[in-house]
Amino acid sequence: MIKSRKIVAVIFVIGLLIAITPQLTALPSGISGAAVTSGCNCHGPVASDEVIISIEGIPNEFIASESYNFTISFTGGPEESGENFGGFNLKSDRGTLISLAETVQIIDNAATHTDQGNNQRIWLVQWVAPESDKVSTDFTLLVNSVNGDGSSSGDMWNKEIFSIKGQNAGSGSVIDIDEPAWITIVGSIFAILAYIILILYRDENFGKKELTYWLTTTNHKDIGILYLWATIFFALIGLLLSLLVRLQLAIPDNDFMTGDLFNQAVTMHGAVMVLFAVSPMSFAFANYIVPLQIGARDMAFPRLNALSFWTLVLGGLTAASGFFFDGAADAGWTFYSPLTSIEYSPGSGISLAGAGLVLLIISVTVSTINFLVTIGNHRISSMKMWDMPMYTWNMLFTVILMLAVFPALLSAVLMLVGDRVFSTMFFDPSIDGTTWWLHIFWFFGHPEVYVVLLPGLGMAMEVVPTFVRRHLYGRNTILYALMVASLLSVLVWAHHMFITGIDPTFRKIESIGTELISVPFALIYLSLIATFYKSKPDFTKLPLVFVMGAIGIFLVGGITGVYLSSVAMDIQLRGTYFLVAHFHYTLGSVAVMTLGGIYYWYPKIFGRLLDEKLGWWHFWFTFVGINLTFIPLFGLWDMPRRIYVYQESAGWADQQLLATLGSLIVFLGQMIFFWNFVRSMKNGEKAGNNPWNGHTFEWLTTSPPPRSNWTELPIVAPAKSSKSDIKTEHVREE
Amino acid sequence: MSVEKHQFRLIIISIILLMTTFASIFNWFQGLGGTGAHADKYDDLFTLYWTLGTIIGGAVYLYFLYLLTTSPEDNLEESMEIGELPVIRDNKKVAGAITIVVTLFLLILSESTFDSINFFEDPETTDDSFTIEVTGYQYYWIYEYPNGASINSATGESMKIPVNVSVIFEVTSGDVFHSFALPDHRIKIDAIPGRVNDGWILADDVGIFPIRCAELCGDEHAIMMSEVEVMSLEDFSNWYNSEENL
To answer: Does A508 sit within 8 Å of B221, measured CB to CB?
Structure first.
């Protein structure tokens, strides 16, 4: 007990140090980017503090439809000499800008200098306030301090963003949503508080002693429950972030979020969902179920197990903590270089995400070793490897894949953080560092998809036979297919880089390789549905219903995946919403399978069944919501992904609005589920040892199982001959 | 009773969803149409993939529905005691047949894919053809013509190309990773700093078409927009040889 407490303390300190380090070295957040508005071009890559902007005539609050005169000037930067030594551009999101002199012109409702106004550093602009004084107006002002030698070298520019509140803004019914950051922060604080309360709710006598117990426990079942809570928490964060993204895109020309905040939301949605929610959620069940399925009393290394869990939590919190400093990572969850370099992303967000990823990789690596040893050495003696239940098999493939590819991510992230903090030059564009990042990241990134998929498939392979009352069809075919698919998945990373200029022959090989992955998955899929042959499935049981929904969704994801694997088709479809719809159909189906897994094993873990009526509502909301969100997105095959604003003329508004409605429905469904999850712990129907009539070992022991799992170790019995009319083959040699 | 009700609902809704999905994918694709030499090849390829994908998807789905709805009177319930080993039912012949059939389908598709990609890779140049050097910056494009003419998309000016003449793009980036995309001409070329990637188009319709950046390149990625103006040969040479370009 004392030792494990020390471990927790040490991890905490290490995590804290890693979290703080980037804070010390990161530059203050700067203005990345340049002016791209008419009449004002980029002069140098970075805004310069030497140029000091002054604006006179800004009122504290504006009165509706009133005119105001602004005097814009600046000092600093190069000397005033030669020609065209000063320029500016002022944009407002509301109201009208008017030119009062020949030196200023209005283009696209932005004020900028004319040719005459290019040889001065002071200008006069009039602004007519909007008709409503219940809103705020944001202004963006850019100025160029030019040295007048005709080229852009040596020039400087600066940017100032200010806003003017309307007289009645903020009071009354109109909510000022100009600062979604506050929504995120307040929302997260509420979520965390609610979360702590909910965790405490599971035991009304919860006290200091219990808290110590949960912080120091090494029992595989306790860790499984902790994993479950933590990953549900991360999944909720991911879901909230996706909701922010969907709200921003619901209507054209929306100003709910700025580009920066939108990028943060998109990036963290991807990173949190893929790396900290769906992928570790497999460990939640694996921790609880795998030792039970193989008749073990615990994992091989219980303390390492606790270590993996606490590093995961620290990693996730570290990666997401950027929201509370100067902005979370905003370069996409794929972290493409050189946008992630200190030059283009000066904030601490990406360093924090890097630190979080390092902790995640530690957690994952420790877990994989633990599972490999547990599955290899802690099976009861009567269970041969080939006889292991399908969920355990799938977890075995998952951890092998993880062990193979997470080191690639580790090296990539270490090099990235090295570049940012110690100015190493691994991803320097001049030595083709950008392509180097792509190769090393996707070597991890593609198999990661299968790391996410296989545990979900494993759950489906447990759920289907149980409720169909037939053993899985083609068990051996599935196992060989899984091996082939795992092997192929580490060989086809370059299909993410078809148009980056890789060798034409190489990309054709990768195209064929990617298409071939659909062969093993076709076998797995067909075997799974062939299990239903002449069966009487019980469609009143929620785990089966969820898995059925997932099977339907997965088919669409799989077939659109073949479209994308074609190198010629991919040129058009990559980087668009078609791709977004495709991978949400595959990963969404994994999420639905995992939900089926939760319904399946909840009674084993908490001893009570989830409420069935709420469960049906949850299913319909999720299933209809996912489809409503992503069917329309297939239509946006010409809309680039990750853009925070689009124009009405582009014709994308209808589909985006439908998708937003769908995502709201999904969100409501998950809220119902969360309520059901918490409520049923106390009020659910008592489950008994084997509520579903399952046939794997976890159903033999009590629900929840005693601390060391078994009062009497289980024994494997040989298969009985079946009434099947299909030719049977017994592989076991005894 | 409730069993059949739920089953019925599930089946109806999933069929509707599946049909909607594939119909919408096809509809949205064809409705918008493309222009230029790539688009013809591309749209044919898409139709092929869509047709085969929908047939296979529909067949699998119908097979599944058939299995679900076959009469349960002769259902083959198996003994599934806890700890009892599963009955292994493998049909190697069926598995082999599925493998071969799927592989064949994929080879047919790959053949068409390679046909298209070879076409996309080898520019069909004529004497009139020329190269435009495209450089991406946060958040605008610079187009440079062989005679030294240069267009900055930040000024709102569109890239100009002649109709029915193949134009080669040499794309690179001056700062971060961009992607030069002409959705209507069905082409996309990554703009990577330190690399030059090339591609080509042969526009066959006069008009103005959008150019987008297709890779997240920073806060204002969304507004990194430009246009390509496809001009008649005469208009183009007037512009190209005009005084400001010489």
So the answer is: no
Among B88, B98, B137, the residue with its CB nearest the CB of A523 is B98
Asked if residue B214 and residue B108 are part of one domain, the reply reads: no
Residue A194: what pLDDT? 62
The reply to whether B83 falls in a domain is no
- Enter the DSSP assignment of A56: E
Tell if the CB–CB gap between B68 and A532 is shorter than 8 Å.
yes
Partner-chain residue, chosen from A471, A501, A718, that has the shortest CB–CB distance to B190: A501
What's the number of domains chain B is made of? 2
> Residue B31's Cα: distance from chain center in Å?
15
Q: Which residues pair with B169 in a beta bridge?
A: B132, B199
Which residues of chain B have a CB within 8 Å of the CB of A724?
76, 78, 87, 89
pLDDT higher at A455 or A21 = A455
Predicted local confidence at residue A174, as pLDDT: 35
A560 min Cα distance to partner chain B (Å): 8
- Distance (Å) from the alpha carbon of A151 to chain B's nearest alpha carbon: 14
Over residues B206-215, the mean pLDDT reads 93
Query: B101 with B185, same domain?
Result: no
Please tell me whether residues B104 and B30 are part of one structural domain: yes
Rounded-to-integer distance, Cα A117 and Cα A143, Å: 13
Q: Which residue of B2, B15, B117, B189 is the best one to mutate when testing the A interface, meaning the one whose CB has the most A CBs within 10 A?
A: B117
Interchain pair A259, B219: CB under 8 A: yes
Interface ipTM above 0.90: yes
Q: What is the pLDDT of residue A71?
A: 86
Residue A188 burial (CB count, 10 A): 16
Mean predicted confidence (pLDDT) in A622-646: 90
Binned at pLDDT 50, 70 and 90, residue A642 comes out as very high
CB contact under 8 A, B87 and A722: yes
| Cα-based distances in Å from A716 to A297, A298, A704 | 16, 19, 22
Instruction: Tell whether B195 and B161 lie within a shared domain.
Output: yes
Per-position DSSP letters for B69-116, written without gaps between them: HS-GGG-------TTBPPPPB--HHHHHHHHHHHHHHHHHHHHHHHHH
Q: How would you class A86 by CB atoms within 10 Å of its CB: exposed for 0-12, middle for 13-18, buried for 19 or more? A: buried
- Share the mean pLDDT of chain A: 83
Q: Tokens 């054209």: give the residue.
A: A252
Same domain, residue pair B137 and B101:
no
| Interchain contact, B138 vs A33, CB within 8 Å | yes
CA distance A524 to A462: 14
Q: Are strands B159-162 and B150-152 parallel, antiparallel or unpaired?
A: unpaired
B135 with B237, same domain?
yes
Q: Do A473 and B89 touch (CB under 8 A)?
A: yes
Smallest CA–CA distance from A571 into chain B, residue: B188
Per residue in A94-114, pLDDT (tens digit) is: 788 888 888 888 876 788 888
Best of B24, B76, B101, B155 to disrupt the A interface (most A CBs within 10 Å) is B76
Residue range(s) defining the domain that contains residue B107: 5-73+90-121
The answer on pLDDT for A417 being more than 50 is yes
Whether B111 and B151 map to the same domain: the answer is: no
Looking at the domain assignment, is residue B85 inside a domain?
A: no
Rounded average pLDDT over A234-259: 90
Query: Is residue B80 one of the residues assigned to a domain?
Result: no
**What's phi and psi for B180, nearest 5 deg?**
-90, 110
Helices assigned H by DSSP within A531-644: 542-565, 567-573, 577-606, 612-634
Same domain for B116 and B181?
A: no
Pairing of strands B225-231, B159-162: parallel
Comparing A200 with A145, which gets the higher pLDDT? A145
For residue B193, the chain A residue with the least C-alpha distance is A429
Is the overall model pTM greater than 0.80, yes or no?
A: no
Task: State in Å, rounded, how far the first CA of chain B is from the last one.
Answer: 83
Q: Is residue B79 part of a domain?
A: no
* CATH number of the domain to which B232 belongs: 2.60.40.420
